Amino acid sequence: MLPLIIGLALFFLVHLVPTRPELRQGLVDRFGEGGYKIGFSLISAAALILIVFGYGKLQDAPGKNPELWVAPIWARHVAIALMLPAFVLLAAAYIPSRIRGAVQHPMLAAVKIWAFAHLLANGDLASVALFGGFLAFAVYDRISVARRGARGPLGERKGGLALDLLAVAIGVGLYLFMLLFGHAWLIGVPLLPGWT
Fold first, then answer.
1. What domain range is 11 assigned to?
2. Which contacts (CB < 8 Å, 24+ apart) does range 111-118 have?
3. Tens digit of pLDDT for each residue in 140-174?
């Protein structure tokens, strides 16, 4: 459990920096914009490696990862359905579209949906720590960006119907890839029987 907890703590701590503009600016002043971004990326990558390693080790050690509840079968179906809008929102985070404009922060919305869906379908302690942690942080971050008036990496850029359709097409493509192959390949858990 320790690598997972350390990874989550490290990931959330480094992602708290942008929510504190004075702290972020102090680091940029000291290390430069490039240095700050490189440090942020390296620490985030190290944290993600710890999270993936720690979570994987706990999934392979049932005695160290107690079941807090057994998710009903319908929860798995709801989780699979919820991931479709999550992938569309993930795509919309990087495409200046009306979807992005309406949601304002589609990446955070996608993370909240992803985390909630996976909490529904997984009742073990490691999953509660992982997905519950990401859900709580995404809620906090959404409140923070609203207070700061942060607009995200695309700023005020907007798009029309063509870019809406592009975001939907990319999101659906990613969803189908993960549903049919990606989840089994990356996570080791096939979502549909007979598809690997």
1. 1-65
2. 111/135, 111/138, 112/138, 112/139, 112/142, 113/82, 113/83, 113/85, 113/86, 113/89, 114/83, 114/86, 116/82, 117/78, 117/79, 117/80, 117/82, 117/83, 117/86, 118/79
3. 999 988 887 766 666 667 778 899 999 999 999 99
Give the predicted TM-score (pTM) of the model. 0.87
Instruction: Clarify whether residues 56 and 134 are in a common domain.
Output: no
Rounded Cα distance between 24 and 105, Å, is 20
Cα Rg for the chain, rounded, in angstroms?
18
Last residue of a domain, one of 46, 65, 84: 65
CA 45 to chain centre: 14
Q: Helical H runs in the chain?
A: 2-16, 21-59, 73-92, 98-103, 106-121, 125-148, 161-177
